[in-house]
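Customer escalation, tier 2.

The customer says the design service returned an amino acid string that "doesn't look like it belongs to this structure." They asked us to rerun it and document both sides in this ticket. The original structure tokens are below, unchanged.
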């Protein structure tokens, strides 16, 4: 809902210009209100975007004179009723009390334990005047960002990094340790150490962490809201389904709280379909229509994927829309967009390199369209793969095979084979490859190495990854169950997604919210027996059973056809291919980039891409390597020609004079 900022000098006053400069940078984002609060050695600011009814005219920063507490926050709290009851707040105050003041009252009661009682997406900082300390927190999955600088008796924080760089003691210096992790990991994870950022002077509060600044020290502490050892056992399968529906409906309804319109991503699959169907049901009672946004390929794109994949998901999306009702659908081609020409814009927005370029053009395009239509909440089911729709069949059957559960595996294989139309002999071969990948000598799933070997050795990056149970290709030596638990518990899995959605929300003045990421939903799903997710030849069984009557069977029971939203990224770049190749050659001549990037890998990839490619090459690792290399190269170029902080300061000074 807001961009927050603050400065704390422990021994000397905060010059008024410091806070003004930070707030000035935030002017590039849309806002409904801008306010500051300050004392001699303390500054708090908020660049507010009103989303919920209670946030309209909300005073932020807010000073509670009775309790001598100040808060600035970027938060939507979902368990308001529970907190109201536990805090004994009178009913006439409940409808109008903003989330920030609710957080402040909760802090007054529970102090540093307060994040454990909060459900929702949040980042906040509180100045406790009596204790002379700063205290803040970031929500459990990092759906909102919170950066900070710590120096000699000086501390500053902000939702984004750029305002911190206006402070004279914060320098824009490359963090080589972060970059090494980014380059070494071939998956979509940016870095495993999420307390650091790509800038050496700026750190971040990790997901599920609090930060306390007191007596000259800065302390981070992890808090826990999930209990992954709890197990739920019901007598009948229908009980599991009914309990899930109730919890998921509660999580979805909590995310519809806005005085604006509500939108949702919608593909042809289960996760976004489930979110849309549960949301549309509640919105109808509020006399609102759900707006859905779906990316479709360019008109001249020819689908090159196998017959059981589809790049244009409209047949399945329309089936959902017609079945659910109360939906106004939007199909967006983004004819003028491609991931190559979006790089600079994404680097400016994210303030660091990124890896999801295949989806970047439609992600940003949907936000742009939603803003034009006054959407306040944009729903997503992005994290459903490890929560509501978890249940990978082949991996599960490999799990049974390795544990010699022959009878159970035989029954499942017979039913699964009948469902998807593939013979058991072929399935068993696929399952053996899944369970014992070292037996498959023809397949090398590894991504080409983007990091320069000498840089990797210098930073000892692969030793660091081993500490987290990872290598370049992800987690190692984890079975099906432990891998899922590890994903849920690892802050670095969620951090990148949270930062991207937080900064997209800030730029376009609307909030992305994901019911599949609700603590209550995750806790419930993680407590269920395995057979609730894969049984009787059905993968992702929980959500398939739970959406009976919510989604059409064409979508709900589809186990054979799969949508691919990113399939046309390369097709969109073909008209600009020579421009792209020229930039790769420029990269290869850059001596500074050569200290970080594996130029041999890039040259080999370039030799495979020198001719104009076909759209069907979209998922070739070599072409994806080149795109990632260009993204890093563009970012590294921003450090050339002297400290870019000086240029940023000049722009900021001009902006202040013009106000």
């Amino acid at each position: 809902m807001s961009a927050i900022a603050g400065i704390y000098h422990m021994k000397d006053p905060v010059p008024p210009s410091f806070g003004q400069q930070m707030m000035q940078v935030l002017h590039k984002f849309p806002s409904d209100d801008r306010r500051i609060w300050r004392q001699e050695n303390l500054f708090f600011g908020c660049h507010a975007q009103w989303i919920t009814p209670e946030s309209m005219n909300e005073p932020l920063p807010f000073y509670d004179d009775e309790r001598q507490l100040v808060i600035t926050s970027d938060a939507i709290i979902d368990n308001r009723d529970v907190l109201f009851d536990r805090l004994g707040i009178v009913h006439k105050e409940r409808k109008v009390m903003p989330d920030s003041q609710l957080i402040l009252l909760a802090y007054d009661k529970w102090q540093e334990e307060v994040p454990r009682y909060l459900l929702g997406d949040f980042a906040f900082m509180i100045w406790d005047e009596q204790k002379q300390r700063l205290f803040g927190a970031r929500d459990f999955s990092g759906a909102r960002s919170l950066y900070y600088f710590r120096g000699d008796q000086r501390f500053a924080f902000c939702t984004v990094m750029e305002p911190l760089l206006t402070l004279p003691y914060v320098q824009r210096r490359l963090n080589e340790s972060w970059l090494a992790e980014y380059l070494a990991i071939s998956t979509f994870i940016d870095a495993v150490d999420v307390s650091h950022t790509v800038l050496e002077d700026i750190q971040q509060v990790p997901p599920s962490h609090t930060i306390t600044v007191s007596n000259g020290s800065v302390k981070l502490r992890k808090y826990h809201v999930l209990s992954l050892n709890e197990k739920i056992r019901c007598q009948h399968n229908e009980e599991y389904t009914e309990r899930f529906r109730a919890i998921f409906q509660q999580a979805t309804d909590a995310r519809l709280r806005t005085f604006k319109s509500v939108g949702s991503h919608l593909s042809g699959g289960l996760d976004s379909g489930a979110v849309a169907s549960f949301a549309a049901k509640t919105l109808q009672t509020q006399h609102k229509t759900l707006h859905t946004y779906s990316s479709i390929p360019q008109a001249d794109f020819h689908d090159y994927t196998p017959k059981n994949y589809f790049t244009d998901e409209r047949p399945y999306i329309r089936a959902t829309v017609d079945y659910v009702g109360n939906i106004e659908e939007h199909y967006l081609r983004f004819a003028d967009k491609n991931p190559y020409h979006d790089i600079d814009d994404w680097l400016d927005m994210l303030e660091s390199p990124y890896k999801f370029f295949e989806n970047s053009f439609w992600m940003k395009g949907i936000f742009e369209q939603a803003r034009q239509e006054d959407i306040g909440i944009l729903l997503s089911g992005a994290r459903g793969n490890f929560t509501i729709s978890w249940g990978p069949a082949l991996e599960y059957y490999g799990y049974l095979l390795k544990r010699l559960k022959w009878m159970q595996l035989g029954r499942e294989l017979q039913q699964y084979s009948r469902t998807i139309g593939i013979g058991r002999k072929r399935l068993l071969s696929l399952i053996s490859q899944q369970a014992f990948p070292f037996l498959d000598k023809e397949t090398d799933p590894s991504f080409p190495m983007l990091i320069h070997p000498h840089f990797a050795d210098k930073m000892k990056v692969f030793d660091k990854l081993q500490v987290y149970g990872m290598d370049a290709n992800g987690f190692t030596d984890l079975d099906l169950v432990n891998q899922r638990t590890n994903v849920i518990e690892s802050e670095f899995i969620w951090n990148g997604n949270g930062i991207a959605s937080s900064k997209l929300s800030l730029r376009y003045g609307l909030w992305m919210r994901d019911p599949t990421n609700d603590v209550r939903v995750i806790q419930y799903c993680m407590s269920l027996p395995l057979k609730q997710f894969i049984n009787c030849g059905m993968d992702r069984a929980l959500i398939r059973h739970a959406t009976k009557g919510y989604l059409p069977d064409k979508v709900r029971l589809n186990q054979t056809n799969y949508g691919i939203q990113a399939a046309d990224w390369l097709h969109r770049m073909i008209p600009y291919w020579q421009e792209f190749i020229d930039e790769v050659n420029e990269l290869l001549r850059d001596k500074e980039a050569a200290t970080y990037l594996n130029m041999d890998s890039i040259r080999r990839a370039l030799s495979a891409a020198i001719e104009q490619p076909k759209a069907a090459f979209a998922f070739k690792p070599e072409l994806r390597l080149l795109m990632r290399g260009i993204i890093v190269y563009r970012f590294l170029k921003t450090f050339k020609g002297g400290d870019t902080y000086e240029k940023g300061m000049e722009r900021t000074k001009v902006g202040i004079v013009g106000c």
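Tier 2 assessment: The sequence is consistent with the input. DSSP finds 26 helices and 21 strands in the chain. Residues 237-254 form the longest helix (18 residues). Sent an explanation to the customer and offered a walkthrough call.
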